[in-house]
Amino acid sequence: MKKKLLIGIFALMLMSGTAYAASAINGLYKGREIVKVKVNGKEVQSKVPGQLINGTTMLPLRAVAEALGAQVNWDDSKQIASIVPAKPAQELTLAQLNKIGKDVGLVRVVDMQGRQAGTGSAFITQEYLVTNWHLIEDGATSRIHVDLGRMVYLYFDKSEAVFINKKADLAAFKLPGFTGLKLNTNKPKKGDIVYALGYPGTKFTLSEGNVLAINGNNITHDAAIDHGSSGGVLIDSSGNVIGITDGGDSATGRNNAIQAKLIQDEINKLKEE
């Protein structure tokens, strides 16, 4: 049986955040005065609006909990509703980020005469070296030299790519024996802490920022990147790859990463062959 849970406004004080109710001429709901409730300055949205019942402001429990970034668990057998606060995101330490960086490499694109045509980044996951297609697409004889920063040097010809997705700007090479980083294929949320790791200017760098928006398969964030970061990784606060760097706008500080799901989709196709 579906149940509607109501909570008095005083219960909001049990959770982090500032809430207040503003009684105004907001209309009626089933004969009761509607009361708008705000949490941290933002009005709580709910199918059942806040109501003034016997002098107390009441609002569905789930609406309040979710407005505070928590969730409600319902135990039907015990008829108990529990508010579970969201766990605060933990920032990664410098040591943890440097360890992750061992699976991120510097890419040098060269022609058959060994002349450097450009630089970028790449990373390892599930025995594949993944980078951006735009880094290696120019020239029929392009080769890439990869320095993983741990005395491991790799050499590939563009023709050795095991998958190429030009639309998603992805390319990968088989790399047996290297497990690499884990992919997180879930969509991140706006405000999530992220880290960009790569080789702008041929030097390993890492920067911290936040997710600004999700647009289709792209993650917009403000972790600093620069020329050469393309092909590097965007890491979540658990140390998993949520995206691959694919450019940015230095003027606005809004940078782009392709969601890890597209990489996993390509790897899954290879496994099915």
Write the layout of secondary structure elements.
Elements: E1 6-8, E2 19-29, E3 32-39, E4 42-43, E5 51-53, E6 56-60, H1 61-67, E7 71-75, E8 80-84, H2 94-100, E9 104-110, E10 116-125, E11 128-131, H3 133-136, E12 143-147, E13 153-157, E14 163-165, E15 170-174, E16 193-198, E17 205-215, E18 218-221, E19 233-235, E20 241-249, E21 254-259, H4 260-272
Antiparallel strand pairs: 1-6, 2-3, 3-4, 5-6, 7-8, 9-10, 9-12, 10-11, 11-15, 12-13, 14-15, 16-17, 16-19, 17-18, 18-21, 19-20, 20-21
Please give a structural write-up.
With 273 residues, the chain is mainly beta. It has 2 domains: 6-84; 89-273, Thrombin, subunit H. It has 4 helices and 21 strands. It has helices at 61-67, 94-100, 133-136, 260-272; strands at 6-8, 19-29, 32-39, 42-43, 51-53, 56-60, 71-75, 80-84, 104-110, 116-125, 128-131, 143-147, 153-157, 163-165, 170-174, 193-198, 205-215, 218-221, 233-235, 241-249, 254-259. The chain has a 7-stranded antiparallel β-sheet. The longest helix has 13 residues, at 260-272. It is elongated and about 85 Å long. The relative contact order is 0.12.
